[in-house]
Amino acid sequence: MLTDIIQWDTRNWGKAIPFWEPFLSSTSGKKAAAFGEREGGLSLWLATNGFEVECSDYDAPETIPFPLHIEHSIVEKINYSQQDITQINFEDNQFDIVIFKSVIGTLATKKRQQEALDELYRILKPGGYLLFAENLEATVLHRYARKRFTNWGNRWRYIQWKEKEEMLSKFTTSTVKSHGFLATFGRSEGQRNFLSRIDQIFAPVTPKSWKYILFAACRK
C-alpha cells in the first residue's frame, strides 16, 4: 500500500505518512482535496482513512477514475477535476484537509509558489490542515546532481529550508521537518532504498538544511 501511495523513493518520502497521521484525527470533518495527483496516491490514502476526496491534477482528465482507485475499490469516495493550483476552482473554507506531494517546485518562481500556498490556505476550513511534502534545495551537491542528471533540474524551483516560516506565515501553526540526504542520488528504487537506510542512521546528525524533503502540517 505504501508504494501505491508514495510511488517513488518510498522509504524516505514515505516518512510523510506517520508524520501526517496525527493531524487527520484533529479535524472536525472528513472532506479533503489532493493536488498534483498524477496517479492518485495521496487521494488513495485519504479515502482509505474515511475522507471524501477531491482528486485533481493540472493535466488530469475530468471525472475519469484513476486505475489505482479502481484497484483499491475506493472510486465512490473520490471526485475528479483539473485544477491549476495557483487558481483553484473551489470556494473558500471548503476542506478539512488539503494535501500535495512534490508539486510547487514545478511553478518555477517563489511568487507562484506563494500564490499556490495562499490558494490552498483559502480553500481550507478554519482549523483545517494543509499537509504537504516538497523538495528542498539541500546542498550544493544536490543542486549539481539535479542539473546534471534530471531533465527538470534547471526548471524546478527548490524551496530553501530558511524560507519555510515566511512562506507559511498565514497559518496559525506550522509543524515542519526535513528528511533524507543520500537516497535522492540513487538511480533506481533499489538503490534509493539502500541509501535511505544510511540516511536513517545519520539523520540525527545531518543538518536540517542539508536534507532534500520538507514535511509540513499547517493549521488554518
Give keywords.
220 residues, alpha/beta, Rossmann fold, seven-stranded mixed β-sheet, 9 helices, globular
Number of domains: 1
Question: What share of residues is helical?
Answer: 25-40%
User: What is the general shape?
Assistant: globular
Low-confidence stretches: none
Helix vs. strand class: alpha/beta
CATH class category:
Alpha Beta
Write out the CATH superfamily name.
Vaccinia Virus protein VP39
Biggest sheet: strand arrangement: 3-2-1-4-5-7-6
What is the end-to-end distance? Answer: 30 Å
The proportion of strand residues reads 15-25%
Helix and strand pattern: HHHEHEHEEHEHHEHE
Oligomer: single chain
For the biggest sheet, the summary is:
7 strands, mixed
Q: What is Rg?
A: 17 Å
Number of alpha- plus pi-helical segments: 9
